[in-house]
Amino acid sequence: MNVVEKTNLLSSLVLPTETTSRKEAKLALETMGLPTNKTEEYKYTAITRLLEKHFESLTPTPIASDIAIGDFLIKDLDAHILVFINGIFSKKHSSFDAQDVSIRLLSHELEEKNSTNTDPFALLNDATYNHGILVEVKNNVMVSKPIVIHHISDARTASIVTASRNTIQLGKSSQVSLIEKYDSVGEVNFSTSVNEITVAENAGLTYTLIQNDAGQRIQFNQTTIHQQRNSRVDCFTLSLNGKLIRNNLNLIIDGEGVDSHMNGLYLLTGETIADNHTVVDHRKPNSQSNELYKGVMDGNSKGVFNGKIYVRPDAQKTNAFQSNRNILLSDKATVNTKPQLEIWADDVKCSHGCTSGQLDEEALFYLQSRGISKDSARALLLYAYAGEVIDKIQNEPLRTYIDSLVGERLHKNF
Predict the structure, then answer these.
(1) How far is the CA of 232 from the CAs of 97, 208, 369, in angstroms?
(2) What is the pLDDT of residue 5?
(3) Closest by alpha carbon to 210, among 185, 175, 237, 178?
(4) Which of 17, 165, 184, 345 is the most buried (most CB within 10 A)?
(5) What is the Cα–Cα distance from 287 to 258, expressed in whole angstroms?
(6) Pairwise CA distance, residues 49 & 210, whole Å
(7) pLDDT over threshold 60, residue 176
(8) Which residue(s) pair with 238 in the sheet?
(9) Measured torsion, CA atoms of residues 79, 294, 152, 81, in degrees rounded to the nearest 10
(10) How far is Cα 113 from Cα 24, in angstroms, rounded to an integer?
(11) Which of 147-173 are b and which e, b meaning 16 or more Cβ less than 10 Å from the residue's Cβ?
(12) pLDDT tens digit sequence for 23-68
């Protein structure tokens, strides 16, 4: 049950353009209200309270910035690059030369269609997004280089609110690697981002989300991936830093022979909150999904994981597996985890499970007995723990980059 939040954040909302779809999204949002601690999907993540503390309005403020982006780029990765700074597309910093791939900038426009979003922050994005991109990969095209979308917020002089939307369409038997990377500097800033991705028959998508904010970003991300017959999707969600992170990742499996993999790693310290909500919706038979999310919480940080698997009546011969594992390094760190299965078919193989605990004291003692300091031994064990997710990344420069980020975080903060 949703409880309407009494706040002026919505009453002061200004639409960038008065389209029918935007007005309908705003009305639906006002009717629903922002989530409170009595809203089931947000009961462990007090995002509205945090927004009220720092913002008077959630209307996007795309302020120009001259920030240098070199430190935010992925080292040694040969890629097509699309850069958004404070919600504004930066042609100066972007480079895209792929053939057989169409890219179009969406600016101040929303397709005239009724929104199917039910999350209040996805509706907020429907109503207010400024910039985004439409990427169309043609049939039988293998895009040789990854497409990287950088979202950079410069809040050194003012609080920033941004909203972006991307539509990615993969043609039949095509293949692409898509990377989204979030960075911010300065004071508290808030962003919403919504992705709609279609993976056609026999197509393959690798989607990587990197959240490593040195600033204080409050962010909401929703990615919905529609998979058709014999397609494959590999998702990686890597949350390393930020003030509050909410990720909704939805996979709609609407064809036979579909292969889906969801991998998540969150390394949290300080006051960081990371909330991962996933949905895998099996609608057709003879498909499989595999989900693994791992977390490490230190300081006063909080991790939240809610994973749902639906197996519809027609989805016979489904294999669906889900696992969430967590390590708590301090007495004040917390994790709330809730794996869920809803199965309406009888010829399936499904399982889910979650674990929460501390580092293996015997392994820690063994490493120390071999002359390794306690801090180094702990970092080594955590690095091996994280490696189960990192090692699945196929692109070598990307894997090396993420490996270095994780290694630095573990030695510096844990």
Answers:
(1) 25, 14, 45
(2) 44
(3) 237
(4) 184
(5) 5
(6) 25
(7) yes
(8) 210, 265
(9) 10
(10) 10
(11) bbbbbbbbbeeebbbbbbbbbbbbbbb
(12) 999 999 999 999 998 999 999 999 999 999 999 999 998 888 989 9
pLDDT classification of 1: cutoffs 50, 70, 90 = very low
* 207 in Cβ contact with 234 (< 8 Å): yes
Structure tokens, 336: 């709330």
100 token code pair: 């057989």
Please check whether residue 34 is in contact with residue 50, taking contact to mean a CB–CB distance below 8 angstroms: no
Q: Retrieve residue 370's tokens.
A: 């071999």
Q: List, in sequence order, the alpha helices (H) in 42-179.
A: 47-54, 120-128
Tell me what pLDDT residue 6 has. Answer: 46
Lowest mean pLDDT among 179-183, 209-213, 379-383: 379-383
Kindly state the tokens that stand for 148: 């990287």
Report residue 269 CA to chain centroid gap. 18
Give the N- to C-terminal CA distance of the chain in Å, as an integer. 38
Rounded to an integer, what distance in angstroms lies between the CA atom of residue 76 and that of residue 319? 37
- How far apart are the C-alpha atoms of 321 and 56, rounded to whole Å? 43
**4 vs 38: CA distance, rounded Å:** 10
CA distances from 287 to 281, 308, 310 (A): 11, 16, 13
Is residue 364 within 8 A of residue 381, CB to CB? The reply is yes
pTM over 0.90: yes
Where in 116-257 does DSSP place strands (E)? 131-137, 147-155, 160-170, 175-186, 188-199, 204-212, 216-227, 232-241, 244-253
Cα 328 from Cα 126, distance rounded (Å): 37
Q: Name the token pair of 399.
A: 């894997």
Using the structure block, give the residue that is written with the tokens 């200004």.
14
In this model, does residue 331 exceed pLDDT 90? yes
